[in-house]
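As a warm-up, study this chain.
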Amino acid sequence: MAKPIVVVGGGVAGLLAARWLQACGKPVLLLERAEACGGLLRSQQVGDGHVFDLGTHIPAFTGQPVVDGLMFDNLGLTWQDVPVLKVGNVFQGVLNTRSQFLDLTRLPREDYQACLADLISAAEPPQAVANLDQALHQHFGAALVQRVFKPLLGRFYQASLEQLSSKAHLFLGYGRVIAGSPQACRELKRSPLYDSKVGFADYTEGRSAIRHCYPSEGGMGAWTTALCEQLVARGGQLLTGADIRSVDLNSGHLLLADGSQHDFEQLVWTAPVAFLARALGLPSTGGPPRFLPIRLFHLLLDQAPGCDCHYVYLNQVGARAFRVTFYDNFLPRPGEPWRVTVEALERGDETPVEQGQAVIAELRAAGLLTADCVVRVVAEQAITNGFPEVTLAQEAAQQALREQVSGLSERLLLCGRNASDAFFMTDVLLETARQLQQRFGQPDLLQEAQ
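Now compare it with the structure written out below.
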């Protein structure tokens, strides 16, 4: 019997890799260290069947027919179409239900004028930057860095701006700002230079043709579960709780902590590269990045929330909550209760109960909950691997490790978030697909559909 191609990591990249290889007619074994696949794309069922996700996740079609076919079609799921993502934000104590971008006009007049002047003056062609401080100054100007981004980023990161990766702000949606009136933003965006700095004042303007969707039942976990079930139904193998202790690339052999041994023809690795280095017996300089200490609060409301947004960012210095998902605004359900998940930054000096009550107060103050809304915290959970704090030292060590490991054997292919600079789901899927096609060719979707 032919040796399988072993895929390590049951996140979105690993699930795509397993489906891709299976559609290419390859025998596949998918190994996942956790007890279930999906990573953060899982769901929790609480009480009377209320389902909550591990944060905000609304998948987007990639526009690449093969990827979309493998990840969304023939899974036995009913999808809720989300044609327009309604994303809002709270900044300077004001709820903006029409854009996720910071509206600089909400700043005090003197601050706004200084920030706008520096933004307009940041007109030099982009140059290579060494860190986040340089990236923000080049992109937005000094006033915005000092008066807006430095205080906001200080909520999340312990390292200084000079120590952080030049892309660290993008994880938090800080790529553009609203610089003035809707017409002023339109005019500025006519310029390729300012287009990259300024957002439209309303999410209905300038939106792409990219479609989003969401499982009609079962939350995001229904999607990753269906992908796993399809893999097994088509003859693939899946092992969860699979802790890899050693890998021999020369002989094509790996050993799990339970003593089981598995041969492989090729090894597609989508898990953290440091785990592979350890299994290969290689020295690893530097540890994994620090992840922001996040606690999720799953809420039930007795009445509709105070906005129609699908999710909202809270850009408030000192606030615990930083993103709120309103499920029933994009997945309508008749009547109460309304489901909400809050992603909040942990406070070491507060118990989860104290923090939960403080988070609810923040949502009321922001206008996201009405004053007389009855709120119940039905579950809370800590998330240990959400948003990374990527320092320059960790970025360099990670890149060096990738280069060292990827050149060891033609049997090995590194894919996914840990093998590239891609972070967001669509980018990870497209980059993984590019690597898979280059190594294994194009899958047969007609065969996959049978």
